[in-house]
Amino acid sequence: MMNNKFSIGPAALVAAAFIGPGTVTTCTLAGANFGTALIWALVFSVLACVVLQEMSARLGVVTQQGLGEVLQSQFQNRWVKTGVFALVTVAIFIGNGAYEGGNIAGAALGIEALLPEWQFPWPVVIALVAFVLLFQGSYALLEKALIALVMLMSLAFITTFILTKPDITLLFQGFKPQVPKGAWLTVIALVGTTVVPYNLFLHASAVKNKWHSADDLPKVRRDTFISIGIGGLISMAIVSTAAAAFFGQQASIHSAADMSVQLKPLLGSWASICMGVGLFSAGISSAITAPLAAAYALAGMLGWSTDGKDWRFKMAWGLVLISGLLLSISGYQPITIIWFAQIANGILLPLLAVFLLSVMNRVELLGKYKNTWVHNVLATLVIAVCLFLGGKSMYFAFS
């Protein structure tokens, strides 16, 4: 008899990956600048994340392959395969490079909050730590410890949300789609910080290591719905606490200390330390997983070994790590880098979602577990909305 007892699975890593420096920063800026008016964008983002990650997880369990491996095997025409690989590779490396820059910058913000009197090139130090851990392959235990710290910070936001006794009427007004003046880039950033493109590759690869049969799909879906749903509630709590602390006050937010103001109702003078620990933990754990996910994606598509000792695998994650470091020391404000990374993710997301939707309709690949018409309608709506938001954001960014 199949055991239906729920257990935490890879979706928890997906949720922990998007509750990182990007989410804390983007949700704080959204609440500070627009109050609760953009809650609807987060609701859409969470639903979109559930739709796409469920497909990715189902693909991994049924085929026992990662998304990169599936893409490698499903496109037989040489020119089509070359085009797909080129587009996906560019999307992964541009998106992950920007995201890695945000991870490193976020971890640096956290250290600056903890050690404000120390003037040090923290992004370089963080990149070196990530390099050593990736090179030695000793990152698994550290990642679990850091995810626990991020969860503690998330608990602080939810508790603060309850203590601030938010105006429920205003909160629910945020569920009505509206885009205040100047908010388009923030909307796409909220999508990009929740539905992270590399998580589609990470989820498909990770889920097959825990579950090995289509009979486990109910567990996979419960894991996905619960973990991502909790992540979404945390994001909404951050927007709400930031709105209560900053909205209407024209506050200038440039550091972790500035963002920590929203935690003071719960933590008082410890707020800055908590924010610093949380941002550092979120940043360095994501600085490890983002290059690794990019390497798995590229290795799967090109048929390389995913053994951490393979020089091509190391080269792949090394390129992402170096590009992230260069972006983090480019001279831009760390919060600007983090925010830009979420916009880049939101714009690149539809490309990868289209490829995922394509393979999820292959009968020869998934049999009776291929997408139903409901899956296809929901996924098409997600892609259409993301394309519209991305187009709007590009228009306003360049105009």
Topology of this protein?
Layout: H1 11-18, H2 21-34, H3 39-63, H4 67-74, H5 78-114, H6 122-136, H7 139-163, H8 168-173, H9 184-194, H10 197-210, H11 217-246, H12 256-259, H13 264-267, H14 271-302, H15 311-328, H16 334-359, H17 363-366, H18 373-398
Helix pairs in contact: 1-10, 1-11, 2-9, 2-11, 2-16, 3-9, 3-10, 3-11, 3-18, 4-14, 5-6, 5-14, 5-15, 5-16, 6-14, 6-15, 7-11, 7-14, 9-16, 9-18, 10-14, 14-15, 16-18
How would you describe this protein?
By secondary structure, the protein is mostly helical. Helix content is 77%, strand content 0%. It has 18 helices and no strands. It has helices at residues 11-18, 21-34, 39-63, 67-74, 78-114, 122-136, 139-163, 168-173, 184-194, 197-210, 217-246, 256-259, 264-267, 271-302, 311-328, 334-359, 363-366, 373-398. Helix 3 runs antiparallel to helix 11 and helix 4 packs parallel to helix 14. The chain is globular, with a radius of gyration of 20 Å. The N and C termini lie far apart (61 Å).
* Count of folded domains: 1
CATH homologous superfamily (4th level) name: Amino acid/polyamine transporter I
Strand content: under 5%
Shape: globular
Tell me what the CATH architecture is: Up-down Bundle
| Low-pLDDT residue intervals, each spanning 5 or more residues | none
CATH level 3 topology = Amino acid/polyamine transporter I
Could you tell me the radius of gyration in angstroms?
20 Å
Give me the number of helical elements: 18
Sheet of most strands: none
Helix-strand pattern, N to C?
HHHHHHHHHHHHHHHHHH
Structural class: mainly alpha
